[in-house]
Amino acid sequence: MQKLIVQGGTRLRGEINLQGAKNSALPIMAASYLCGSKCVLHNCPKLTDIYAASRILNYLGCKCSFAENTVQIMPTESDCSSISEELMQEMRSSIIFLGALLGRHKKCTVSYPGGCKLGPRPIDMHLSAFRKMGVDINENFGKVICNVKKSVHGARISLTFPSVGATENIMLCAVLADGETIINNAAREPEIQDLAQFLRCCGAKIKGDGESRIVIEGVKALSGCEYTIMSDRIACATYLSAIAGAGGEAIIHKACANCIEPFVSLLDQTGCSIYTLDEGIYVRSGMRMKAIESCIRTMPHPGFPTDAQAVLMAALTKSDGTSVFEENIFDCRYRHTDALIKMGADIKVLGKTAVVQGVDRLYGAKVEATDLRGGAAMVIAGLMAEGTTEVTKICYIDRGYENIEVYLQKLGADIRRE
Ligand code: EPU
């Protein structure tokens, strides 16, 4: 089993090019299943979740090939319309293939998706939207069995919460459906806009992405296209947190400050200097951060992203004062705190609130990644700690960070994979 060994105490300095966004690449790969000709995706990050998506595409008969950060997806003639439980379990995003399958077939079967354990992650909103679009769905022993009597048709759908996955799934189903689909209370994350932009390049008719009301007019067919996936705003927040926590200065190229505005504005309050460049972000951090006075509440975009909660918390463990987090998206997204406490952090968790009292020192320890972002938080704490930290179960980290140790080495960190 692989682990990351981090020797703390080095200030970070250097320049990195941000990886492509996992949470854009995954739905875009699923969307390519709808296209009648080849798709070429550039800036695709090399991640285990991306390889899992390519295995699903191959299973469905497409041919995926990788060359560095470009993936080519050749369309399939196969009428395979189910995905094995084993493949579905590999990641949460496997569920996005349901919308794509419904775009092409009158019946399909999938099972419930896997993914990081962040608390209950139901798919009720996805399924109720598909039902509105004319899909008959039976849930049986963990399987989701779908049949379409006449055709998948457009519908007016009001989401009870702006779910990212449900919005993407409905978009994938609606682009080839008969008539118009309106999604009210849609998710507004930048990755939704990236998916919509890709689909438009393939010939889809979509308006309103990035806003709460998305309107999709179904078309008869989509063709493949060549597309560059946006940069990963959460990886950006992670490396910014590492630099803020460990101290130092760096330029993150290809970063979009607007996409993580709520994160950047909080980091600004900690005393870090942040400047937006043409295509990147410069950050400089002194010896000690200030705590953040206002409560850090995770919210759907454009609020503070839940995916950046753990990494910012790690950076704040050694700040001056007390910071308070409120996690509003997932029920169980503080699992990293035990490891941070083991390393000397002072964190009290009560329900959805975590209170972080800054300490003078963190100490290296043996810790186990609990999930993707929680694992990254442990690496950051390791960079800030005295002594050596060993992070195991890094398969979680590899789901979302392209060689995290190589990026951090470029910033001068003492970290290696064993
Ligand atoms: N929810 C429901 N019913 C549904 C769908 C969602 O109750 O049918 C609830 C979830 O249980 C959760 C909340 O709604 O409490 C938000 O879930 P959402 O559907 O928005 O999240 P997701 O699509 O499963 C994506 C990202 C996550 C990110 C969330 C929130 C991908 C592949 N995953 O998940 O990313 O945390 O949106 O922004 O896009 C990560 O990258 O580490 C990660 C977990």
Helix-strand blueprint:
Elements: E1 4-7, E2 12-17, H1 22-32, E3 39-42, H2 48-59, E4 63-67, E5 70-74, H3 85-88, H4 96-104, E6 107-111, H5 124-132, E7 135-140, E8 143-148, E9 156-158, H6 164-174, E10 180-184, H7 190-201, E11 205-207, E12 214-217, E13 226-228, H8 233-246, E14 248-253, H9 261-269, E15 273-277, E16 280-285, E17 296-297, H10 309-316, E18 322-326, H11 337-342, E19 346-350, E20 353-357, E21 366-368, H12 372-384, E22 388-392, H13 395-398, H14 404-410, E23 414-417
Parallel strand pairs: 2-14, 3-13, 9-10, 17-18, 21-22
Antiparallel strand pairs: 1-22, 1-23, 3-5, 4-5, 6-8, 7-8, 10-12, 11-12, 14-16, 15-16, 18-20, 19-20
Helix pairs in contact: 1-2, 1-7, 4-6, 5-6, 8-10, 8-12, 10-12
Uridine-diphosphate-2(N-acetylglucosaminyl) butyric acid binds next to helix 1, helix 5, helix 6 and helix 12.
